[in-house]
Design a protein that fits this description.
- A hairpin with a 2-residue loop joins strand 7 (207-211) and strand 8 (214-217).
- The protein folds into two domains: 1-42, no CATH class; 43-266, B-lactam Antibiotic, Isopenicillin N Synthase, Chain (Jelly Rolls, Sandwich).
- It is of the alpha+beta class and 321 residues long.
- The longest helix has 21 residues, at 128-148.
- The strands form three sheets. It has a six-stranded mixed sheet with strand order 2-3-9-6-11-4.
- It has helices at residues 7-20, 23-29, 69-88, 103-115, 128-148, 155-159, 231-236, 296-306, and strands spanning 47-49, 58-60, 91-95, 168-175, 185-190, 196-201, 207-211, 214-217, 225-229, 246-249, 258-265, 275-276, 294-295.
């Protein structure tokens, strides 16, 4: 989505804003009452709806580890649920995911306290333990998604290398109340350049998914994590899985600040030189590849150069079939 001011003016104003190193929270601390033009966005043509509870499935991962026939049946049902979500909505929430319940509010509290410190006293929050637990959950999800594609459980992690290298990037977001929320967005419309993304959000909400031409709210469920399919998995699955566009709406005046922690699993380090394309077993005749193979660095460079303009980066690599 484009800003409502010219590109040159926007770049000048963005540089001046970045040079303050205080972020949007700095504007709030200064008592800003109007949204600066660099944050204005054109009206979205899609309507919004709050009928999300049926649209975004909630999946219980308790049946992931099967040890007997009854549990094996429950595991197959779990794979079927993940398959249905990945092929249609592209988003789902997971419970009984193995991340300790007490850790989730601590992570959100750390992000909130960091952003509410004076600008010159802020410092990063990161622990190896959080990264280890996030990678463990991603391994479970990739196993389920592999089975959902009819592949062996280790395919996406081991054969395709979706967790190779330092593949995890944390993004901690803090959205303060906005004086004119109708003029802007917390995060503009986009899909993720990842294999998959795992999100922890607080009770404020604001995440919306574009489904059937309408913006659908993703409800905040205590103890749940939001999972969405990324662009790389849509490409590798040859469009069986959907990397769905989403956004974050601005927080209205008087509401609490929105806090979230996103974990992006995407090619990084040496893995960026690897080529990713449709899985060979998924493009046997009569099925044809819908995308050309692309290195991680080529895809990510194009995504950054394109910017969040409301167009999917996948279209650039799509084959005419």
């Amino acid at each position: 989505m484009a800003s409502t001011i010219g590109n040159n003016d926007r770049l000048t104003q963005l540089k001046a804003f970045d040079d303050t190193k205080a972020g949007v929270k700095g504007l709030v601390d200064e008592g800003v009452t109007i949204v600066p033009p660099i944050f204005h966005h054109l009206p979205d043509p899609h309507d919004a709806t709050s009928n999300a509870h049926a649209a975004i499935p909630v999946i219980d991962l308790a049946a992931f580890s099967a040890t007997n026939n009854d549990e094996a049946h429950a595991h197959q049902q779990l794979v079927a649920q993940v398959k249905a979500a990945a092929e249609t909505v592209g988003f789902f929430q997971v419970v009984n995911h193995g991340v300790p319940a007490e850790l989730l509010p601590r992570m959100l509290a750390s992000v909130k306290s960091f952003n509410e410190e004076p600008a010159d006293e802020r410092r990063p929050y990161y622990t190896r333990d959080q990264a280890r637990r996030a990678r463990g959950l991603a391994a479970q999800l990739l196993a389920l998604l592999s089975e959902a594609l009819g592949l062996h459980a280790g395919y996406l992690q081991r054969d395709a290398g979706c967790l190779d290298g330092p593949s995890l990037a944390f993004a901690c977001h803090y959205y303060p109340p906005c004086p004119e929320p109708w003029l802007t967005l917390g995060t503009t419309r986009h899909s993720d350049p990842s294999f998959l993304t795992v999100l922890l959000q607080d009770a404020v909400g604001g995440l919306q998914v574009l489904l059937g031409g309408r913006w659908v709210d993703v409800p905040s469920l205590p103890g749940a994590l939001v999972v969405n399919i990324g662009d790389f998995l849509q490409l590798m699955s040859n469009d069986r899985f959907k990397s769905v566009e989403h956004r974050v709406v601005a927080v209205p005046p008087g509401a609490a600040a929105r806090v979230s922690v996103a974990c992006f699993f995407r090619p990084s380090g040496a893995a960026t030189s690897k080529e990713y394309g449709p899985v060979p077993d998924l493009v046997k005749p009569p099925e044809a590849p819908r995308y050309r193979s692309v290195t991680g660095v080529e895809f990510l460079d194009y995504y950054r150069q394109k910017g969040l303009d409301g167009r999917s980066a996948l279209d650039h690599f799509r084959l005419l079939v």
